[in-house]
Design brief:
heterodimer, B: 5-stranded parallel beta sheet
Chain lengths: ~120, ~450
């Protein structure tokens, strides 16, 4: 079962502090492999906190762990993740003549993943 | 041991574009680390705490330890041989190092680009088309009574922007801080910044341009259809209220982030916001300011501009600077497979660029300068370990509002600065090429 949703990439303070600790550190890998998702969307897809989901774009795919957000904070159909190696896998190199790749509001396919498969990069 | 601790007053944090220059650092010289950073935000505290001296080789060549001199020789050979070399990064180093990097780009007929191209590059394009109504953060603190944050999350990315300048700060004409200001936040989702706002306006993704254009119409007294709500998620009444507030305020500010530049519309979004600020100056005083990410990304814009005439994405392959976003910007030169060597200074594109660009980085010789091991340094042919600017190295950085600040380092590093290494590379490349790769361009004849 897959659904199409809108992915927002962005920065978080936890990502910022983990950045200074080092990009090979556990904290940075953890924060950049976490996907925030609307709790109603998660319930419909049979997902709980820490469940795995696969995101797919025409460029590539990545597996992340879910973290629920209430509808008032993150509307249905919207996803958020911190920039990092996994968000890169989903981004197109075409900048439409601007130099800027689309990094926010990506159309992604969302698919629950069996528990035996960990996040990409683990 | 208490007697071995030293206090550095008025040090500067270079983590983000706020460049807070009121740090009080406690330094443990014996262990080469900062044990306390008063006044720093959560990001600044981690920045100072985690930038001690790591035991790493001065350089790695193909993964093998090497001296700085050996690294400079290898890097110079790579750049002198390359046909389409690119220089990228530069937003986390001093203006002095940036200047040398641009000189290398000129000498080798290469392409110089900075992280601006993947942050506020579209804003730079919009500045050229629309112009900028600007102010220093000091003016904002002292005068602004309406602050609008659009497409950004300062609470997590620039925590002290609120307390030092824009929300709770008390200024000459804002003696009561937040009580003297109305704060509006426009975003597609609630973030930790939202509670700061008196008014939160939630727009649908990819509709910022439409909302901004509708506001321009309302400010000018033109009719807007109520169907704007269906398209953008924001009712006409909310937009009219905001337009009225903007016209009635004494001093308004539009701070904007990458929620505008990294999404559909890019420079059109930024241009619409800048045009709105310009329109508002018919009625009151209004300014617009991009909220900048890296500590000296504003310096990079300035240095590249004053040396080439353009802020980023500059190519020297014809012997004179040409600017063309989409052609000479780094995501493009990599994703199209054009670059045949890369000098990456204080940046980690392999951890945040689109995958096609990263794949090409893996195929070409890469030179990195970075205080820490990064994803990019791990794939580099030559990886230099450098001293950290602001902590080990003095120099000049530009705050996000364009105010230059001199850095006051806390302790010395055994590793050289970016500027030292770049000067070494520049001098050796000059020897290898016998001067500039391309002859100077002659002025056109008068006849």
């Amino acid at each position: 079962m897959t659904e199409r949703m809108t992915l927002i990439g962005g920065r978080t303070s936890k990502q910022g502090t983990a950045l200074s600790e080092g990009k090979h550190g556990a904290n940075y890998l953890q924060v950049t492999s976490t996907l925030e998702m609307n709790v109603e969307d998660m319930a419909r897809l049979g997902l709980k906190n820490e469940s795995r989901v696969r995101l797919r774009t025409p460029i590539g795919e990545a597996v992340l762990r879910c973290k629920g957000r209430e509808t008032k904070d993150l509307p249905k159909g919207m996803l958020f993740m911190a920039y990092g190696p996994l968000s890169s896998r989903l981004m197109d190199g075409d900048t439409a003549g601007t130099g800027m790749p689309l990094s926010k509001h990506l159309d992604v396919e969302v698919e629950p993943v069996a528990e035996v498969e960990g996040p990409s990069g683990e | 041991m208490a007697e071995e601790l030293r206090v550095v007053q008025d040090a500067t944090c270079t983590f983000c574009g706020c460049v807070c220059d009121d740090m009080v650092l406690t330094v443990d010289d014996e262990h080469h680390k900062i044990t306390k950073s008063e006044n720093a935000c959560v990001l600044g505290k981690a920045w100072f705490k985690e930038h001690g001296i790591e035991d790493r080789p001065a350089a790695l060549i193909d993964g093998r330890p090497a001296t700085t001199a050996e690294g400079i020789e290898e890097a110079a050979q790579i750049l002198a041989r390359a046909r389409f070399p690119i220089i990228y990064g530069l937003s986390d180093t001093t203006c002095e190092a940036q200047r040398v990097a641009v000189g290398i780009g000129d000498m080798i007929g290469g392409t110089v680009d900075t992280t601006t191209s993947v942050c506020h590059g579209p804003t730079g394009i919009a500045f050229q088309g629309v112009g900028e109504s600007t102010a220093s953060l000091g003016e904002v603190k002292n005068r602004a009574d309406l602050i609008i944050f659009w497409g950004g999350n300062p609470a997590e990315a620039h925590p002290r922007l609120f307390s030092r300048y824009a929300v709770t700060a008390k200024g000459m004409y804002t003696p009561n801080g937040k009580k003297d200001r109305t704060v509006v936040l426009v975003d597609v989702r609630r973030t930790p910044s939202t509670p700061v706002a008196d008014i939160f306006i939630q727009v649908k993704p990819r509709t910022d341009f439409e909302v901004l254009w509708a506001l321009r119409a309302l400010v000018k007294g033109k009719p807007v259809s109520p169907s704007i709500e269906e398209k953008t998620g924001v009712s006409l009444a909310v937009l009219q209220d905001l337009a009225d507030r903007m016209k009635k305020c004494k001093y308004g500010v539009l701070f904007f982030g990458m929620g505008l530049t990294m999404t559909r519309g890019r420079h059109f979004n930024a241009g619409a916001l800048l045009a709105l600020a310009t329109d508002l100056n018919e009625f009151t005083h209004f300014v617009a300011a991009p909220v900048r990410g890296h500590g000296n990304v504003t310096g990079a814009d300035n240095v590249v501009s004053w040396q080439t005439g353009y802020p980023f994405g500059v190519n020297f392959s014809r012997g004179y600077p040409r600017f063309n976003p989409g052609e000479f910007t780094t995501v493009d030169t990599l994703s199209r497979g054009e670059a045949d060597a890369a000098l990456i200074i204080a940046s980690d594109p392999a951890s945040n660029f689109p995958q096609p660009a990263i794949e090409h980085l893996k195929r070409i010789p890469v030179i990195t300068l970075d205080p820490k091991s990064s994803v990019t340094s791990q794939l580099a042919r030559v990886a230099f370990t450098t001293a950290t600017y602001g902590i080990n190295v003095s120099g000049t950085v530009y705050r996000m509002d364009g105010v230059p600040i001199t850095l006051r380092p806390a302790f010395k590093s055994p590793y050289p600065s970016d500027e030292f290494i770049l000067c070494g590379i520049r001098d050796r490349v000059r020897e290898l090429l016998g001067g500039n790769r391309l002859p100077p361009v002659e002025a056109p004849s008068a006849t």
